[in-house]
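Attaching the record inline, Q. Sequence:
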Amino acid sequence: MLQYDIVIVGGGPAGLAAAIEAKKNGVNRIVVIERDRELGGILQQCIHNGFGLHVFKEELTGPEYAERFIVELNALGIEYKLDTMVLEVTEDRKVTAINSTEGVLQIDAKAIILAMGCRERTRGAIRVPGTRPAGVLTAGTAQRFVNMEGYMVGKRAVILGSGDIGLIMARRLTLEGAEVLAVAELMPYSGGLKRNIVQCLDDFNIPLYLSHTVTKIEGNDRVEAVTIAEVDSTYKPISGTERRFECDTLLLSVGLIPENELSKLAGVKLDQVTGGPVVNEARETSVQGIFACGNVVHVHDLVDWVTEESKVAGVNAARFIQGKSPQNGPKIKIKGISGVRYVVPQHIEMDNLLKPIELMMRVDNNYSDVSMVVSHQGKILKSVKKRHVAPGEMETLTLDLTGVELNGMNDITVELVL
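Structure, as predicted:
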């Protein structure tokens, strides 16, 4: 049985930031376990720029952003294992992992940080009708093929879903010489950042069809054509609105799902809205000593926010090991209402409020000229005016509860007020 103070599952941006912060806060025996062949996670295939504007105050590509943390990790002497798959995490903080050189590893940890990231929804998850030819890929898979493996996925493409990866791949394929015929989005608004719509679609004259979905895929060996149609308010296709595109590729950018199979094995309570663990302000889950951060908790739109959240997990995992983290004290829930789909963290430990907390949330629709209001028992704790909010962009709000009397029997609520 191997012994570590902290085991971090995942060597992407979340795991790297958490490991570094834990080390800086006095924890020495740390191991990062990564199933891929290198550290950095999804950043290694994101060769476009736009990363690091908040953390480093400069514009970096994904690999450059990852490299900053990998260099620091090595400088601090933090151990990591590559090509290693974690098979199980238990409630008593035991980890089972496997790789081709050491075989099966049994690890006993004082604290665990879950940083597994997220996965893409596939064709099977959205049940697109038609045949099942080659040429139907998720946008992230296509990104890896093009950017890391050096394979071109097609010459004429249609993209379903306007998430950020799909938007970025529309530009990437165009730059590689392919023709992107259309991007279809089921919702009446885009699921990606506004800047990506402008830079990846508008700048390349790629049409975006909102309130549209794919109704048919044609082809035997390879995709030959894709038909899209407008949908009504119940998301059912409207007859007579079909558009047929002859193409050889269909990319799916239809949402991301936090990767929480290991969390379930550990008995961690999951939030039904985010799909990730329910966490407190320390990013501790419902299982004592198991923390979570990054896209495994909720899907972020900027890696900078992943880094900031993961630092919180790293600091508090260190405090837990050192016996500085209050346990079983009074708690108060935080929930989103009236236009706010969810809020992270979902609750706070009253005895652990050392500084203002950062609330992260997503809204359920596009809104203009609204106020984001935080309340408790009818008392407004904070109100911030917003010119525009959208589901594709995460909102953050700093809440200082110093000197505020809170009744744990009542929730803190966050809502939009028109």
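The longest helix spans residues 303-321. The CA atoms of residues 77 and 135 lie 43 Å apart.

More tomorrow.
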